[in-house]
Amino acid sequence: MAGFLFGLVLHPSRDVSEVVEIVDRWAVRHGKSLAVRTEDRHRVPPSVELVPAAELAHRSDALISIGGDGTMLGALRSAVRDPKPVLGVHLGKLGFLVEVEPPDLPRALDRLVAHDFIVESRACLACDVCGDDVVAFNDIALVRHPGSGFVTATLAVDGQRYGYYRCDALVISTPTGSTAYSYAAGGPLISPATQAVVVTPSAPMAGISRSVVLSSDETIRLELLPDSAPVAVEIDGIIIRDASTEGAVHVRYQQNAGLVVRLDPRRYAERNQLKLSLLDLPLLPEQLRELLPDGMRKQLNRRELPPPR
Question: Could you tell me where this protein is found in the cell (predicted)?
Answer without folding.
Answer: Cytoplasm
